[in-house]
Amino acid sequence: MMGSAYILKQYLGLDDDYPICLSISHGVDFNHTVSAYDIESIEPIHWAYNKDIYERSYNVKPAIKIPHPWLLLHDMHKSEAPIKNGKTLIIAPPPSKANDKNLYKLISHLNPLELEILVKHRGTDQKIDSSVKFWESKGIKTISAGPQNDAFYRNLYFILSQFENILACTMSSAVVFGVSIGCKCELITNYFAQGYETANYLTKTSFDKKSFNINSSKEIILSIKDKNFVLARELCKKILGIEFINNKSEIKDKLKDECEKLRHPFNTYGKNIIISRTRLILFNIFKKSSIISGSVYKNFINKFNAHVTYIEMNEIDVFKDGINDKNFIIKKIKYRKGVNDPGSA
């Protein structure tokens, strides 16, 4: 959860050992998936940080309206005033030779001494190290929030809060996070990122113009392009759940109530009770979370016919207008462990 549980416990004043059995999207949920983003996670309750997410959650499993942990962090640290870095922070795409080279072509005219780049910990250590070496060979200092562990959101918060200006080529969560705390942003609108996703990627997303509710992301992109950063900040705070920020006691009560009503400590909604109990027994024996989530069974089946989805996407354009022949390329390819893992590039 990238530190979400600890942040929530600190915000609500809960004991360190208080169980936080909530799933939450690993990126910003722009309402671009059929069900709430990452709601299939094994946790039995979903962290719905805006009304749209809540509406797409409660029919799948219980959901609680809680501001995104990013807003909770900011609420706890907004009185602090870090010295601003005069440089521009580039939000890098997932690291790969192709992604890095394609981005550098578009920014090579900029003074590297006035830039730093946020390198994501996505993919293998080799890909990450290669990306760091590439950017530093161009004279651009690299910075990272590290792997997506319990320190991730805190690390990212204290990085972004040091910069007044960010430059982005994708609709990374860091764009929304940075703008929500006052960063000015510039978008590179002609960049195509390459990457790999799960084989069923298009069945889980709804990027088609007719089905994709693009209002939230489109409004953010247009306000940034118009340099209306006051509006952009308000829109980013809205999608992160600013309207729930003063509901601390209500959130605390709802969390306790939903946890007490649970019959199982993991997501069993829509699953046969016999299957759920069998999974719990096997989990207690083998201590593997993949047994609870069901991924161990899918992995076994997919082992004999493993594929991933290869994508080239102009994310800024897709999140503004939906997919078309000019901004989105997709094909299914054979899976190669460590080479094209979903989520990497």
Number of helices: 15
Apparent shape: globular
Strand neighbour order, sheet with most strands: 6-5-4-7-8
Average pLDDT works out at: 88
Q: How large is the share of residues in beta strands?
A: 15-25%
Uncertain stretches of 5 or more adjacent residues: none
The strand count comes to 11
Structural class designation: alpha/beta
Determine the N-to-C terminus distance. 22 Å
Task: Give an account of the 3D structure.
With 345 residues, the chain is α/β, with parallel strands linked by helices. The protein folds into 3 domains: 4-68 and 242-261, no CATH class; 82-197 and 205-233, Rossmann fold (3-Layer(aba) Sandwich); 273-302, no CATH class. It has 15 helices and 11 strands. The strands form 3 sheets. The chain has a 5-stranded parallel sheet with strand order 6-5-4-7-8. β2 (45-48), α2 and β3 form a beta-alpha-beta unit. α1 (4-12) crosses α3 (69-77), α7 crosses α10 (229-239) and α9 (215-225) runs antiparallel to α10 (229-239). The longest helix has 14 residues, at 248-261.
